[in-house]
6-phospho-beta-glucosidase
Amino acid sequence: MGLQKDFLWGGATAANQVEGGYDQGGRGLANVDLLPFGKDREAVMAGELPMLSFDKDHYYPAQKGIDMYHHYKEDIALFAEMGFKVYRFSIAWTRIFPLGDEAKPNEEGLLFYEQLIDECLKYDIKPLVTICHFDCPIHLVKEYGGWKNRKMIDFYLHYAETLFERFKGKVYHWITFNEINMLLHAPFMAAGLVFEEGEDREQVKFTAAHYELVASALATKRGKEIDDKNLIGCMLAAGDNYPNTPNPEDIMAAKLVDRESFFFTDVQVRGYYPAYALKELARKNIQLDITEEDKQILQQNTVDYLTFSYYSSSVASGDPKVNELREGNLFPTLKNPYLDASEWGWQIDPLGLRITMNTLYDRYQCPLFIVENGLGAVDVKAENGVVEDDYRIDYLGKHMKEMIAAVELDGVELLGYTSWGCIDLVSASTGEMKKRYGFIYVDAENEGQGTFKRSKKRSFEWYRQVIESNGDCLK
């Protein structure tokens, strides 16, 4: 038993968190470039504090990232040394279409990714490409309002088609949108939404969600037409919600919170809006711009597999007074007394990964792919210059054991596993560098200071052994 022989072990990053080079190679400005480090970051992510250009009062971490734009060959060589079978990365929309609405793509941007992909293939590493990892060209935000505008579907489709055609025969694994459900929690970061005075925010968010769902389905259709070997997936920020107590009200509350996320994947995997979602939209008096053609597109172009991120589980209550005690982060949750938490308050729940895998597989019966899982921690170099990150090895090892149990004992069909931030990168939620995830240390600080030199942590060799043994060394 165990994992399939061709199980895809690897790591994952996002363009806006690693590349830097924001003004090089003809690249345009994107929403994700404008997420500042510091106290204003969350308000900007949420679309509450409009920020459509750089100012002198903030530091913008995406401008530098970890400078992978200039280090990608070195980084991919290190991934190959660990034995990666797959590398999940995203393409920056504004490297390909700097404004987003041009007819012709930027050749320099396409060439950069072609070289990056060729570097992966040189080491027999399969590229897993996220077409849109929260990117929205800022021109499209200013000119069209981001994803609140139906015209975005055509701009996105033109962008996706350009990638499918250029990388045909080199890339076969695709994800249409990263963590599509994050649109509800961080609407500017996830969909380029900035709210105007008096605007119905729920109406705007669900309108944008519908347009992204149609765009995802159309990209799935075109991707198959351009190359029938393409496998195209969707992605969910996942993690089961547990009821706070056995009180049926808490159990119902947990189910309702889960549905906020399943709303997206129910459409992408099943091909239609679920009844509970239509009822909820009606209760909120939200009128979606759904055409008969939209319904047909969604129905006929479901995804091949479901990818998801998993960092922690959450706890929900039906009691409003209890809910006042919820902690922050992008997914507010009650504390679970049975779990420890990371330095950033994320509750560590390895068994929750197995539970989440079963929930998703029972619901959809389609192949799963874990494309993000990792521990953000403060890493300190020992006297010998090495980061002795046993805490990361412990976290990942426990999660991988539960992942294998879901496959071996529960029969979940799993294509692969890519740890998040296989190399240190800028944290999406906080904009910090000190919240490190990688097997590879990058000498860079929160506000861009450092040599950007790469070095191996203790976890580097550990992960190499995990991949080499296909997980057997964990037993």
User: Anything to note?
Assistant: The domain at 8-474 is CATH 3.20.20.80 (TIM Barrel). The chain has one domain: 8-474.
